[in-house]
Amino acid sequence: RETELKNGRVAMLAAMGYITPEFFKFPGICASGVPFADIPNGLAALSKVPGAGWCQIILFIGLVEKGLYVYDPSRAPGDFENAGVL
C-alpha cells in the first residue's frame, strides 16, 4: 500500500512538472549559464540541464525522502508525521 501511494504521488508531481513549464518559467539563469526561458519543455530539457543540476535534484529528493518523510510503522501507510494530515 505504501508503494502504491508513493508511486501515485510521484506520478502526480511528474504530470505537474510536465504541464507547468507550458505556462510558467522561473526568471534567472540555470547553474550552467543557460537562462531558464531557453530550457525547452518536456523530454527535450533532459539534454539542456547540466549533470550537476541533475545531481542537485536527486540529492534533494533523497534528503527529503530519508530525512523528512521517515516511515513510522505505527501510522497508516503514506501518513508521514512531517507531511501534514492524511
Write a structural description.
With 86 residues, the chain is mostly helical. 42% of the residues lie in helices and 0% in strands. The chain has 2 helices and no strands. It has helices at residues 2-19, 51-68. It is elongated and about 45 Å long. The model has no long low-confidence stretch (mean pLDDT 82).
Number of strands: 0
Pick out the low-confidence regions: none
Main beta-sheet strand count, sense and barrel state: none
Q: What structural category arises from helix and sheet content?
A: mainly alpha
Helix content: 40-55%
What's the average pLDDT?
82
Order of helices and strands: HH
Q: How would you sum up the global shape?
A: elongated
Helix count from the secondary structure assignment: 2
| Gyration radius from CA atoms, angstroms | 16 Å
Amount of beta strand: under 5%
How far apart, in Å, are the first and last alpha carbons?
14 Å
Name some characteristics of this structure:
2 helices, single chain, 42% helix, mainly alpha, 0% strand, 86 residues
